[in-house]
Each structure stands twice: as C-alpha cells, then as structure tokens.
Design brief:
By secondary structure, the chain is α/β, with parallel strands linked by helices. It has helices at about 70-75, 85-95, 115-125, 130-135, 145-155, 165-175, 195-205, and strands at about 15-20, 25, 30-35, 35-40, 50-55, 65-70, 100-105, 160-165, 180-185. This is GTP cyclohydrolase-2.
Length: about 220
C-alpha cells in the first residue's frame, strides 16, 4: 500500500459538532429570536440531542439550560407538569441574555414517552410520580447527563451558569468535568393540575421550588 492511500483511523469517536444551522424561533410573546441549532457526532447514548445557541453566548460562564424532552408538555401544552412554561421561559431568557439550550431526548425522566404515560395512569390511581416509576420497575429518575457534558465540551464550553431547580443536574455535570460557576432557578409554574407533581419533586428529589402552602400532600 502506498502512503497516498493509507487511511486515517480515529483512535476513538470524540464527541463533536456535526452540523450548525440557523433556526429563527417564534417566542410565546410574539417576538422572534435568532438561534443556531447544533447536531453532534459521537454522543454516548446515541440519541439525537440538540443544542440551541442564542445571542452573545461567549460569556466566561454562559447561561445554560438543560431541558429534558416532554412531548406532552413541550408540544401539547400539558398542564400535568411544568415543562411547557419552563421551556418557553428558557427561550425568552436565552434570547434576552444569550446562552445555550440543551434539548435532551430524555422523555419521562429517561423511561420514554410510553413509560411516562403508563406512569400517568398509575398516578390517576393514587401513586405519586416516583412511586409510579417504581411500580413499573424503573428508577425514580433514569437520566444520565454524560451526553449533555459532551455536547458542552464539543461546543468549547467547560464553565457555565446553570438554570435549574434540580440539584442532580449540577452534581452530575460537575462530576463530568463541567464547572458550574452558578445556579439560577427557573420560574415557578404551579397550578391545580401539577401541584402534586411539583410537591413530589421537592420531597423526593429535593428540587428547589418555593411552592404555595396548601396542606395537600402528593
Ligand atoms: N416518569 C415520569 N416523567 C415525567 C413525569 N412528569 C414529567 N416527566 C418528565 O420529567 C422530565 C422533566 O423533569 P422535571 O423533574 O420536571 O424537571 P428537571 O428537569 O428535573 O428539573 P429542572 O431543571 O428544575 O426543570 C421530562 O422528561 C418529563 O417528560 C411523570 O409523571 N413521570
Ligand atoms: Zn413535562
């Protein structure tokens, strides 16, 4: 074999950006936001996670929101959870302040859409969101943020300001080599249909949510 036809074989599949494309977005308040959407090569779980970059995201610790997919909330506006309004709030904030949305294909805290719907059925029979997962043979929360850390590194980001109420996201990202310089909470989006769900998150997974006092326990 001559040198000219020798193949270069990468030592390992290092996560990297595959494509960046412009993505103008209609915000809920009628404004338009310019964003760039990124796909990736070599993410550890093989899922099609995407990142959206807004405005001047070159801050030393840019704003980053990790949003776990929730078809019922994100697409249909379900009132059973707070995902829809959280996503809208993230898009608005990122448009105004710059930063990144990581949209993680972790539907149902990692158990998938059909699994989540099975869990909803059990919740209608009295289980809370975590008991329902366990009754179906799942963990409370099966999300692993390795792919999120790899996406950030592929984008050249290792220090962030994380927007979340979930202490596990910070813990995992730090363990995966992303320095979380600060944590900022999301807004509180509670209503009659999601109050029990939010109460269960505070009780089981220590989400930092200042819920209204109702005396009702989930
Ligand atoms: N298994 C299960 N998943 C749910 C349920 N309700 C919402 N989810 C999923 O939970 C994920 C969102 O998680 P949350 O606990 O609301 O929020 P978080 O991402 O942990 O924390 P924040 O960063 O503070 O928003 C999405 O993937 C939803 O599809 C449910 O009742 N059961
Ligand atoms: Zn949801």
């Amino acid at each position: 074999m001559t040198a000219s036809c020798a193949q270069v074989v990468p030592l390992k599949d290092v996560p990297s950006v595959r494509t960046a494309a412009q993505l103008p977005i209609h915000l809920a308040d009628g404004r338009e936001a310019a964003s760039t959407i990124y796909s990736f090569h070599g993410l550890s779980d093989g899922k099609e996670h995407v990142a959206l970059r807004f405005g001047n995201a070159d801050a030393e610790a840019p704003l980053v929101r990790l949003h776990s997919e929730c078809m019922s909330g994100d697409v249909f506006g379900s009132a059973r959870c707070d995902c829809g309004p959280q996503l809208q709030e993230s898009l608005r904030r990122l448009h105004e302040e710059g930063g990144y949305l990581l949209y993680m294909r972790q539907e149902g805290r990692g158990i998938g859409l059909y699994g989540k719907l099975d869990a909803y059925r059990l919740q209608e029979q009295g289980h809370d969101t975590f008991e329902a997962n366990r009754a179906l043979g799942h963990g409370d929360d099966e999300r692993d943020y390795t792919a999120a850390a790899d996406m950030l590194k592929a984008l050249g980001i290792t220090r962030i300001t994380l927007v979340t109420n979930n202490p596990e996201k910070r813990r995992q990202l730090q363990a995966l080599g992303i320095e979380v310089a600060a944590v900022q909470p999301t807004g509180l989006f509670s209503g009659k249909h999601n109050l029990r769900y939010l109460q269960a998150k505070v009780r089981h997974t220590h989400h930092t949510l200042a819920l209204p006092e109702t005396g009702a326990e989930a």
